[in-house]
Fold this protein.
Amino acid sequence: MAIDMPSEDALHVHKGNMFASAWPTGEAISTPALIWLTPCQPSKMLALWNNFHQAADKNGWAIPAEPLYFAKSSSSFCARGV
């Protein structure tokens, strides 16, 4: 039996919970035909500035004792291609 595999320009469709038990349906959709959305509607993002040591060295800043965190608003999220 031959299986028709989608190209790199296609997305494989899954059903179920994307965080727990999703399974493939065997369907594929052409990616140019899709409208891309963010996977959730976040209210904010809290993040760790993971390269603060390099930034401090480069700019001559004192290295902080604790990691630096920052917050981003919900308007900073965008979907693919936006």
Summary: The two ends are 40 Å apart (CA to CA). Strands lie at 10-15, 23-30, 44-49, 68-73. Residues 1-34 form one domain. The helical segments are 52-59.
